[in-house]
Design a protein that fits this description.
171 residues, mainly alpha
Amino acid sequence: ESNVTRLIVSRARRLHLSGDEIDDLQQQIVPKVVRFQFDAQRSNGASPTTALTSVIDRQVKTYLRTRRRYRRRIQLLSAEPGRYATRIMGCHEAAPPEPVDLRLDLEAAMARLSQRDREICRLLSEGWAVLPIAKRLHCGRDTIGRAIARIRQTFIAAGLRAWVDPNDGQA
């Protein structure tokens, strides 16, 4: 398992991820790597390590693509919320919500959060990773993880799934 961890860290560093992002990424990748089973017949002569490296690289690149997509959505929505809401949120058939409606929905969801959860939400929207948020707020990563789960539930209940799930509406 430590070899897998070292492999994840080395591959993530090659793609210029920071230490905090690597920690978050490991939490996402390790469960998938544990399920990976090497099949020599389907490997085209690759070694188990090469196949595992390919799986890790694919997961890291997916993480980077998702992060880039999410940051772009936040920029577009914060710049002109009404103009891009339909395309970004996957509501192709429905008329785009008015910018005021989106802001009201967002404000209503934020009002349901505690002050600390609002601070965590703000830091996440600025691109902060879990570990730096935990350090800044003097708490553990698990505490931040539970707060993120509460924030997700609140936003989803308010009909704002696209704000917490960057892959929503995409196949």
